[in-house]
From TrEMBL:
<keyword id="KW-1133">Transmembrane helix</keyword>
<feature type="transmembrane region" description="Helical">
    <location>
        <begin position="60"/>
        <end position="82"/>
    </location>
</feature>
<feature type="transmembrane region" description="Helical">
    <location>
        <begin position="245"/>
        <end position="264"/>
    </location>
</feature>
<feature type="transmembrane region" description="Helical">
    <location>
        <begin position="178"/>
        <end position="198"/>
    </location>
</feature>
<keyword id="KW-0472">Membrane</keyword>
<feature type="transmembrane region" description="Helical">
    <location>
        <begin position="338"/>
        <end position="357"/>
    </location>
</feature>
<keyword id="KW-0645">Protease</keyword>
<dbReference type="InterPro" id="IPR003675">
    <property type="entry name" value="Rce1/LyrA-like_dom"/>
</dbReference>
<protein>
    <submittedName>
        <fullName>CPBP family glutamic-type intramembrane protease</fullName>
        <ecNumber>3.4.-.-</ecNumber>
    </submittedName>
</protein>
<feature type="transmembrane region" description="Helical">
    <location>
        <begin position="137"/>
        <end position="157"/>
    </location>
</feature>
<keyword id="KW-0378">Hydrolase</keyword>
<dbReference type="GO" id="GO:0008233">
    <property type="term" value="F:peptidase activity"/>
</dbReference>
<dbReference type="Pfam" id="PF02517">
    <property type="entry name" value="Rce1-like"/>
</dbReference>
<feature type="transmembrane region" description="Helical">
    <location>
        <begin position="13"/>
        <end position="40"/>
    </location>
</feature>
<keyword id="KW-0812">Transmembrane</keyword>
<feature type="transmembrane region" description="Helical">
    <location>
        <begin position="270"/>
        <end position="290"/>
    </location>
</feature>
<feature type="domain" description="CAAX prenyl protease 2/Lysostaphin resistance protein A-like">
    <location>
        <begin position="247"/>
        <end position="308"/>
    </location>
</feature>
């Protein structure tokens, strides 16, 4: 089983928290070249410029390379965490197969690449006024070279982190007796902070105060549970056991994956409803990972989605600006189309993948209990 592969190495949940911090620090270090490039281009004027102005001050190809560079450094950080904290190889969080199945990566890539290309062509033919032809031979060639090398690195980090590392990490976390309390308190902190920032635009100090109060509450609950209250403790342990199933890490990683896109300019432009698409996409990628017992399909799918988007069409309000073939100049709107992939397109992909790879036991693979392999269990 994919999640249970974490038992091959050191799998204490706190190690995954430290590993995630290492990845975050590595990614921040990877942003230093972008910061330096912006400062060298704009000098002290950088201080008073907005983020869009800072981004537009650089050559688009240089900008996209430097943006993607941080993901490459982050991937190095993840590899170090896996090797030295958990003492396993990247293969353990990649697949249950003896080696990476490139045929699966190609299929995942091909499905979304063909669908996206056809969708863009149909929309271009139907609404040509929404697009501007942007082809410039040399910038486009440079873009293709950068994208072909760097985009798979970017998407691989995201897949290795969410569908691999954290999927297994949260799976191991569910085995901890206080996982449910920690999860609930963390969700409450997130909801309170989001609501407070949304309604009142509170400052960093107040965020810290709210977080500290919630953590004190968690410690208090922990102390209560440590008391010799047999009935209360038994009830809690039973409640905690209800989280020890594969859907728990699946849901958690999908939510984190989607909510991390809050910083994208698409959210500011289209509104929070676009998060349904991001969370739903994370759920789709997580489901195909669990059903296929490996990340290959998700790796290919994510790379194909981002690569086609960067090369074929971009808009001024999207996360990545590039020297793409087309520029979308239409005023962005959002409606039922945000649910179209989730309700129609992704289910079709499920059917195709399930037929090709003969997926069975959906209930067990998605909702089954997370248990250590027999050989790692401590005898009674």
């Amino acid at each position: 089983m994919f999640i249970e592969q974490a038992y091959r190495g050191k799998h204490d949940f706190w190690l995954y928290l430290v590993g995630s911090l290492i990845v975050a620090i590595a990614a921040v270090i990877g942003q230093i070249p972008l910061t330096l490039a912006i400062f060298l281009e704009n000098g002290l004027d950088s201080v008073g410029m907005s983020q869009p102005e800072l981004m537009q001050s650089l050559d688009p190809n240089l900008l996209i390379f430097l943006l993607l560079l941080s993901f490459a450094i982050g991937l190095v950080g993840l590899k170090l965490a896996v090797k030295y904290l958990h003492q396993i190889s990247l293969m353990t969080i990649t697949t249950t197969r003896k080696k990476v199945d490139w045929g699966r990566i190609i299929l995942g890539f091909g499905l979304i690449a063909v669908f996206s290309s056809i969708s863009i062509w149909i929309d271009y033919q139907s609404n040509p006024e929404n697009y501007v032809w942007n082809y410039k031979s040399m910038p486009f060639l440079i873009l293709c070279l950068i994208a072909i090398v760097m985009v798979p690195i970017q998407t691989s980090l995201e897949e290795y982190l969410f569908r691999g590392y954290l999927m297994q990490g949260f799976g191991m976390g569910t085995r901890h007796k206080y996982f449910s309390v920690g999860l609930i308190v963390t969700l409450l902190i997130a909801l309170v902070l989001f609501g407070a920032n949304f309604m009142y635009d509170i400052d960093l100090l107040m965020n810290a105060v709210i977080s500290f109060a919630a953590l004190v509450t968690l410690v208090f609950i922990h102390m209560l549970l440590e008391k010799k209250n047999v009935y209360g403790k038994a009830a809690y342990l039973k409640f905690n056991t209800s989280f020890q199933f594969k859907f728990t890490p699946l849901i958690i990683t999908s939510l984190i994956f989607g909510l991390l896109h809050l910083a994208n300019p698409e959210v500011e432009k289209l509104g929070y409803s676009i998060l349904f698409f991001y969370i739903g996409t994370g759920l789709f990628l997580g489901i195909i990972t669990l059903m296929d017992e490996g990340m290959e399909l998700a790796l290919g799918f994510h790379a194909g989605n981002n690569l086609i988007g960067i090369i074929l069409v971009t808009a001024n309000w999207t996360a990545f600006q590039s020297e793409s073939l087309l520029k979308d100049v239409a005023e962005p709107t959002i409606g039922f189309d945000v649910f179209l992939p989730l309700l129609i397109v992704y289910p079709i992909f499920y059917i195709i993948m399930a037929k090709v790879y003969k997926w069975k036991n959906w209930k067990e693979k998605l909702f089954g209990a997370i248990k250590p392999p027999v050989e790692t269990r401590i005898p009674n």
